[in-house]
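Thread: ATP synthase protein I, structure

OP (GT): Posting the sequence first so everyone is looking at the same thing. Length is 152 residues per the record. Can we get the structure tokens written out before standup tomorrow? I want them in the notebook alongside the other entries.
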Amino acid sequence: MSRPDETPAAKPVRKVVSSEAATALFRRALRDVLLFLAAVTVVGVVLGAIFAGTRGVWGALLGAAVALVFSGTTVWSMWRSSHSSPAAMLGIVAGSWLAKMVVLVVALVALQGQDFYSKPVFLAVVLVGVLGSVALDTINYQRARIPYVEPQ
């Protein structure tokens, strides 16, 4: 119960996450992931060529493509669904995850038994690309300035 000499403080009003702040977060995260994967691709191609020749180049290119599908679609699906209801966002993100798994299985089955690419280079580029992208997403999320509530 408030005392008569107190004035009520302005109460914050809950509303949907600030669209500008969320858009800035996802735009920055997607840009950082794309730049990081471009750098991983270049380094992977150079190191793959040095250690495994043409097979290493193909392994690096395929690994970078898989890492891009995994990392890029996650950020993109979250960005596109950030203004939706939580249930819709869950459906979109889970659906994109399922689609990525199907694409990965199809790609691995198609590449099984092929000898035109280096499997160790492929695996190294995928691991570095995906783990680095997760680290970048985490850093971008921690640095984001998205308010929980906004005053009227």
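GT: Both are above now. Quick notes for whoever picks this up: The radius of gyration is 22 Å. Residues 19-52 form the longest helix (34 residues).
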